[in-house]
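Input record, target 12 of the design panel.
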């Protein structure tokens, strides 16, 4: 099965600019982008809520071999394969954001609901970060967390 945008020539810069443009068109009042190491972050503010999503970027050494197991011999071939995957991931993020905002506008699913895991809490973490530990514990123990703390 082919992966979405696996042969895209759209650069990450163009994808990020497109994401910002999409967000503005749907009413966002803030936009942020940052990266460190193999992670990038896109954040935005919409309807008084802040959202952020982390994009994991693969390490370059992952591309020393092809999907069929052949070894890439040059650094430029490894870099080119890595860069292609980075471009693909930015296209996927652009598609997700556009689809979720369009679903919101059409009344299918609100952005607040579909982006709930990416909602930024007052301490800077996301609801997804906060909930993941509780969900993991519930599955491990088979018990729901208490309704009220303490």
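The sequence produced for target 12 reads:
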């Amino acid at each position: 099965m082919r992966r979405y945008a696996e042969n895209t020539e759209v650069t990450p810069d163009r994808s990020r600019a497109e994401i910002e443009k999409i967000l503005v068109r749907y009413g966002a009042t803030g936009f942020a982008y940052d990266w460190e190491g193999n992670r990038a972050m896109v954040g935005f503010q919409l309807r008084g809520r802040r959202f952020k999503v982390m994009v994991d970027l693969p390490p370059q050494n992952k591309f020393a071999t092809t999907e069929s197991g052949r070894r890439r011999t040059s650094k430029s071939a490894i870099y080119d394969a890595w860069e292609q995957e980075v471009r693909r991931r930015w296209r996927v993020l652009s598609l997700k954001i556009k689809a979720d905002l369009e679903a919101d506008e059409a009344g299918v699913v609100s952005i607040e609901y579909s982006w709930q895991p990416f909602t930024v809490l007052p301490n800077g973490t996301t609801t997804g970060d906060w909930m993941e530990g509780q969900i993991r514990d519930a599955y491990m123990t088979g018990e729901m967390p208490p309704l009220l703390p303490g």
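The two ends are 49 Å apart (CA to CA).
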